[in-house]
Amino acid sequence: SVLVAMHDRAPQLKVCEDRLTVTGERGYCMARATHGAHYGSWFYEIKITDMPDGSHVRLGWSQELGNLQGPCGYDKFSYAWRSRKGTRFHESIGKHFTDGGYGQGDVIGMLIVLPKDD
Amino acid sequence: DLVKFNQLQFRKKQLKFARSRIHDWGLFALEPIAADEMVIEYVGQMIRPVVADLREKKYNEMGIGSSYLFRVDFETIIDATKCGNLARFINHSCNPNCYAKVITVEGQKKIVIYSKQPIDIDEEITYDYKFPIEDEKIACLCGAPQCRGYLN
Amino acid sequence: WSAFAPDFKELDENVEYEERESEFDVQDD
Fold first, then answer.
1. Nearest CA in chain B to A29
2. Which of A22, A52, A60, B25 is the most buried (most CB within 10 A)?
């Protein structure tokens, strides 16, 4: 089953016992999952269980070289959709993606379609 | 360290900011300082290395340079570019009369400048910046006989 | 000496920097 990785993540993030819940305190950093997608179409869902005031999240896909000490979408190895204003990010460049963001109680679906290389 | 650090707070050394022979302006002793005394804490904003990397690029573009960023450990950098204390004005020397040391006081890491040897009144306070070696060199103006020629 | 850094803020001790949500963003529409 896909869990939050114990080591492929910024050490300052808190991962709960169930290894399905991540909490960060100071400044953006990233946690990746235990499994990656290499080709074909893959989909995962995240339920936002708690968003204290002023907290935000960027969810998406990252290759293993994505910098864990920055947000998802920080460099050229990751792509993210932000909870604030629903902006999408890649290489730290924000572009309009959805009108309005998402927050507590939402279930976010993430699909990636990777060509099967020969 | 805690006792000695508290002494520093109460026994802040009298220093002055004045024209320096090494580089524009520097910090000078206004009182004689014995060897191995705490001279001043290097104070600034505590930031993460990834934030320091971004700022270093921005400061270089602004022509400020990155010489007010001081690495405490792998988690924290002190940035004294926009806010800090007099310590940011201490010049580098390859033959310094002080040295920088990271001490932990009540769980907080601090950078403290200590004297290596007795320092006379009006003598310039200097320490070795120990900058990482880089391709783009910054010339060293310390004028010491064994000057290494560059800060980095 | 603050004359040499007009927008310089003098501190007595280290302050923790509160990162902004858009700290790392190059541009954010």
1. B50
2. A60
CB-based burial label for B91 (10 Å; 0-12, 13-18, 19+): buried
**What phi-psi label fits residue A103: left (phi over 0), alpha (psi between -120 and 50 degrees) or beta?**
beta
- Say if the Cβ atoms of A70 and C19 lie within 8 Å: no
B49 contacts on A by Cβ (under 8 Å): 69
Instruction: Say how many CB pairs under 8 Å bridge A and B.
Output: 9
Q: Which residues of B59-80 are buried (b: 16+ CB within 10 A; e: fewer)?
A: beeeeeebbbbbbbeeebbbbb
pLDDT at C29: 53
Distances (CA, A) of A33 to B23, B47, B65, B107: 51, 27, 38, 33
pLDDT tens, B104-135? Answer: 988 899 999 999 999 999 999 999 999 889 89
Q: How far is CA A20 from CA A4, A103, B72, C9, in A?
A: 6, 18, 33, 43
CA distance B43 to B34: 22
Chain A within 8 Å of C28 (Cβ-Cβ)? yes
The secondary structure element, H or E, covering residue B49 is helix B49-62
Which ipTM score applies to this complex?
0.86
